[in-house]
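User: I'm writing a short report section on ligand binding and want a predicted complex to refer to. Could you take this sequence and uridine-diphosphate-N-acetylglucosamine and write out the structure as tokens? A short remark afterwards would be nice.
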Amino acid sequence: MKIAGGIPLKGVIKAQGAKNAALPVMAACLLLRGGELALDNVPDLYDINTMNELLSALGVVIEKNADHVVFKVPDELSYEAPENLVRKMRASSLVLGPLLARCGRAVLPLPGGCSIGSRPIDLHLKGLKQMGAEIEIKDGVVYASTRGRLRGRRIYLDFPSVGATENLMMAAALATGETIIENIAREPEIDNLADTLKCLGIQVELDGAGGVRIRGNDQASSGSCRVIPDRIEACTYILAGVMTGGEITVNDIIPAHIDSTLAKLEEAGARFKVRRNSVIVYPVKRLKAVSLKTMPFPGFPTDSQPQMAAALSLAKGVSMVEESVFQARFLYAQELNRMGADIKISKDVAIINGVEKLHGARVRATDLRAGAALIIAGLAAGGETYVEDMVHVWRGYEAIDEKLRSLGAQVELA
Ligand code: UD1
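Assistant: Sure. The structure tokens for the complex follow:
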């Protein structure tokens, strides 16, 4: 993407459906036997296409009409996730729980590491074993099976992993009796999955304090649900508005989902108004440095850390940004430094010495959110920025070039 920077953004856009909510909710269709799951507000993204390919490979028939997608699930499903798709997207591991619960077997190549750090699925496997699954790992492939149905029980997660919570909730949906999972992730995407499971006829109660109780059924029934708005995409645009000294409105969001980011922006001196379903950003000259640490929800999201760091690279003073969720999520720093930022990494902390100006440069998106951070930095920088490896960005941002152009940005795809 070629960006002619330095133009304050102006206008109104709407947030897309959330990638990270859509992926597990789509995987939940595998719980059906001869039924349908209809979803609204499904974003058009590479990762969503990968999940569509994976579900198709397992036997699901998918009918798309803009953001309305219907998943038709036959009586018989394949239980082997193809390696090429699992390699493309780590979230492919979300099919493990529902496939095992529904087919009694599942084969999943291990997703392996990725550029933001090692991402094991040991917590997923531990929980499934506790529910009675037999799990064997041979040559990097997980073979899971169960004699009869999985068994509901109490599970305590050692860490509130988003993916493990989702996989285990889906597995519990078809288990015998009641499953109680403690210390679960509390991200809004979990509520969206709970609502979807309820639409499929499963009793699910989130206690709001890190626990969920699920009464398993012997089968799921057809249903329909809506994907929540993408809080990370919304914050990327809000930060782009702030960084360019622009005046923009981001509509169709749930402000309560982005409280931690808005709180940090307020502390940094940004001006904005929060309405029922939107945020309006007003221009400010320069942010003040702030410090933050990423944490599971409702803490500051790791997925907004690179974009926030980009904004803080122009703030007055020194900001400390600590990453506590992933081990290696600072690869964007050396790219931002090519644009004139002054960021030093010391273990899990980025020390950001705010500069007055950034300048355009040729930079490389090393992962999805790193790419987003470089794009918004490019919008605020003087001169031209080229962001290479946009393939990462398309995994999570629908029509980002068109949306930015509608806000007055000069961006072009090469
Ligand atoms: C999800 C999001 C991702 C986000 C992350 C944290 C999706 C598709 N992806 O990823 O965008 O950055 O939540 O908010 O929703 N861990 C283990 N063992 C496990 C599982 C996780 O050690 O079995 C560790 C991971 O290595 C990582 C941390 O726990 O350090 C958080 O991972 P997790 O919450 O599981 O993230 P994902 O579900 O992979």
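A remark for your report: The mean pLDDT is 96. Residues 342 and 353 are 5 Å apart (CA to CA).
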